[in-house]
Amino acid sequence: MDNHLLIKENKPVAFSAETLETINQLSKRYPEGERKSILLPVLHMAQEELGGYLTIDILDYVASLVGISPVEVYEVATFYSMYYLDKVGKYVLEVCRTGPCAICGGERIADYLREVLKIKTGETTADGLFTLREVECLGGCGYAPVMQVNTEFYEYLTNEKVDKILSDLRAGAEKETDQQKRWVAQFSSQI
Amino acid sequence: MGSSILLANIGVPGIRNLKAYRASGGYSAVEKALREMTPAQVAQEVTRSGLRGRGGAGFPTGLKWSFLDRKTDKPRYLVCNADESEPGTFKDRFLMDKIPHLLIEGLILSSYALGVNNCYIYIRGEFKYLVGILEKAIREAHQNRFLGEKILGSDFSLNIFVHPGAGAYICGEETALLESLEGKRGNPRIKPPFPAFKGLYGCPTVVNNVETLATVGPIISMGGEEYAKIGKGKSTGTKLISACGNINNPGVYEIEMGLLLDDFIYSPAYCGGIAKGKKLKAVIPGGSSVPILPADLILRTLNGQKRLMTYESLAEGEFASGTMLGSGGFIVFDEDACIVRNTWNLTRFYRHESCGQCSPCREGTSWMENVLYRLEHGSGKLSDIDLLVRVAKNIEGNTICPLGDAAAWPVASAIRHFRHEFEEHVKNA
Description:
The complex is a heterodimer. By secondary structure, chain A is α+β, with helices and mostly antiparallel strands. Chain A is built from 9 helices and 4 strands.
């Protein structure tokens, strides 16, 4: 648990028609009167689609979509570690720092990233491309050291692998597959 | 001991898809159950199998199911706990990735046994890529009439929905998971009432782990009694063990319960020994929450018996000289590993993951982290070691959920078995 101040940007926010339809379909998965259950998935979609981190403007918009009070959204957004409440770069590098990764060189990978990106943990590079975070166990202990970049897993990390990942991300051409990796694309069995 | 039940077919090309899964015998347990068995008979086979919860607690599954309140006219729910977050544990992720239909088949059978028509898979948000894999498997099952209305022409209807969490270890605790599924913070609930009476949306609910539910299909196929013949004593069947740390072959292994622990560590079929030819120092065998044991005690019990991979053998000697099978998250430390540093690291994890509801856990994990930090970083005192023992004791048993115990046990056991290392950290500072 960490303390957070929420950012307010006073920018208009709105989901695409496709996302609104996905949310509409998702809400049918839960019983009458339990629409609040869609909150976590909707916040994932909001973060991904509306700028990469969650501002008060977005949280209030989500509250109105889900039909609950803003404070019910704030208390959830501040609880879960996958929701970013600070400005982040285009790519969020999340290095696992927990025991099994740590004994397999995870701490050295974080050191190396700080060195090559010239930032501290929690900071974003000046070009706005990379934010470095250290996170708790990602459930990839057998493939240590691991990190996630925007929920993509990278495993068996070495310095050389990190160099390659960074240069690939810098080259940055949006791949076609990236579209298929969006949250909205995951929920395909809509009923 | 090379018994393979859950992972038997993972090498079949395309087994992630329904077609290949069907071709290797998949969904025949659903056909058998819906055509030849009553729900009570399905539940009875699970009870006979001796299956125990694979998430960590090892509670008998059939018994857990028997608690479900069937007197109310409220809907009943089955929730699959796929929030795999216990450090050292990555077996459920492997299972869902390689053979998702095995889980779906288990969910159908379990829902039939429990009289459930809506089932949720609560999966940790970091496993986003698995959401798509599971949703595709569910869609295929619908297309082949294994899900939806009147499955295979029976009176039984079922929907399964995947629901992502958003990064919180505590949501692996079943009541926190239910809160989260309801769109709230993952604060564990006070029990009683237990979920069997008042669970999801205030309705009777069973929450089971992925591996537990995936095992129900094979149990129905072979029969509970046959399943119970596999394994040893009350540790029936097979168990997925996710092995990591300083070993040659990290990965997920299905073992028959009763395997010699020595074999698991040194056999080339499993961990393949300690990496870089080093010596074994210690093992945490069941996920980061269970007590750490030094090499001599993990290989043999205090009275000299070879330790086995069973719930009972690992617990032999209780916490004085034993540990737990837990989730099967098997973390191996070589001779170079620093126990003080690792204990500080794991305590930082529990401090970060404490939901903050209960003072002993919220404050206690912070205190332990601070004290361990100064011991590891050269400003500790000898009296800090007993201070840690006292703080751990004051957390244990004094919280709503078991996260407090889970934070206390690693500290208490590290000091119990490696006190000299903590003392050396102070003396050499």
